[in-house]
TrEMBL record:
Signal peptide (residue range): none
The protein's name in its UniProt record: HAD family phosphatase
Lineage: Bacteria, Bacillati, Bacillota, Clostridia, Lachnospirales
InterPro entries noted in UniProt: Cof, HAD-like_sf, HAD-SF_hydro_IIB, HAD_sf
Length: 262
């Protein structure tokens, strides 16, 4: 019997960079909870962005955000993994050296950038619904950062993440979190680790867990679920670790699977 469902958001429940979820999912989440099945949104996005997407049911579900670096339920923080200051300096120096790249940093109290790209800021605020503030230097927030995100406008994130993984091995988790997003999180910040912790917290086994995803940052999570689904548009390496592949490109395909549990 399934007791826990964890789903990626961008590319799985929503087109990347949007926020208008099918409202039918809210009703399904509530009905699943009535049956004793917990729903968790597991996203590379920042907490405030994901919670905005699920606002009508925010108090009834769990949030694995920032690729597992920040895990919450209502007002309770279940996990918060932060960088050390020296690593932040090194990552920012690396990200700032990349051409045509926008970056932002995330702390438990908000999201910040010192980039001046107005078009990107508008997209992040209106598309992802991120409450992002412009400040003089993001190092002002270096005392408590859970994620540094780089948007590489002209490059494939999965390929660009490879050299960064080598460069920051042991210092940070580096993953492709979208077509152009490369995320840097503190050691141990990974959706798979966060799902394991949530399973322990809820006394749920992997066999009692269902998960959905599409990108490389979902692989650990999918491996820790007995019932794992990749959407049809998922990367091939994601499909390779999943038990099932959803048959069509309709974003409601996840919703259809959830409704079978009801």
């Amino acid at each position: 019997m399934i007791k826990l469902i964890a789903s990626d958001v961008d590319g799985t429940l929503l087109p990347e960079g949007t926020a208008d979820l099918n409202p039918e999912l809210y009703d399904v989440i509530l009905k699943l909870k009535e049956k004793g099945i917990v729903f968790a949104a597991a996203s590379g996005r920042q907490a405030n962005s994901v919670k905005t997407v699920f606002a009508p049911v925010e108090q009834e579900m769990y949030f694995i955000t920032n690729n597992g670096g920040y895990v919450t339920y209502r007002d309770e923080v279940l996990a918060c993994r932060v960088f050390d200051g020296k690593t932040i300096e090194e990552i920012l120096a690396y990200v700032r050296s990349l051409e045509n790249t926008f970056y932002l940093v995330t702390s438990p109290d908000g999201d910040y950038t010192d980039c001046q790209d107005k078009e990107m800021l508008e997209w992040l605020r209106e598309g992802y619904r991120i409450h992002i503030d412009q400040i003089g230097d993001v190092m002002e927030k270096a005392d408590c950062l859970v994620k540094i995100s780089a948007f590489l406008k002209d490059k494939d994130a999965a390929k660009e993440a490879v050299p960064a993984k080598t460069l920051f091995e042991g210092k940070a988790m580096v993953t492709a979190a979208g077509d152009h997003w490369v995320d840097f999180t503190a050691p141990g910040s990974e959706k798979g680790n966060a799902l394991k912790e949530l399973q322990e917290h809820l006394h749920v086994t992997a066999e009692e867990t269902m998960a959905f995803g599409d990108n490389n940052n979902d692989i650990g999570m999918l491996k820790n679920a007995g019932e794992s689904y990749a959407v049809s548009e998922a990367r091939e390496e994601v499909k390779a670790v999943c038990k099932y592949i959803l048959p069509d490109t309709n974003k409601n395909s996840v919703l259809k699977i959830l409704k079978t549990l009801l």
